[in-house]
Design goal:
By secondary structure, the protein is mainly alpha-helical. It has a single domain (19-143), classed as TerB-like, CATH 1.10.3680. Helix content is 74%, strand content 0%.
Length: 146
Amino acid sequence: MFADLLKKLVQPEPEPLDDADARRALTALLVRLARSDSHYAASEIIRIDRIISARYHLDKSAAAALRAEAEQLESEAPDTVRFTRAIKDAVPYDERVGVIEALWEVALADGARDQDEDALVRLVANLLGVNDRDSALARRRVDQRP
């Protein structure tokens, strides 16, 4: 189902993704983070649905469908380095900072900071070209939310 998208992601110089593929890839990155601690919690699934619903102006059903596609894509996707490189090439910097903020939301959704999730967010921020300052500010914004 995602063969064309995965093919784009593994090219040495990936082409920019169209909007639908960018949405799938960004959502799959959220899923990858949620699964990184080997516990894909209901709170993380709910948070992913909320994030993509708000980000892409989707109703609950459409958000759940996008997340389901992203779960499948994530399980078939290449390593995180190639995966994020394609996202970096497809998404402007300000939106990549938003992706880091969304990743922090998912990482903190279950109420616990996990070492593996923290490490993955730091790695992804670096791979997306988001500097440490902007990543830290994104985490603070998430920490300060009720």
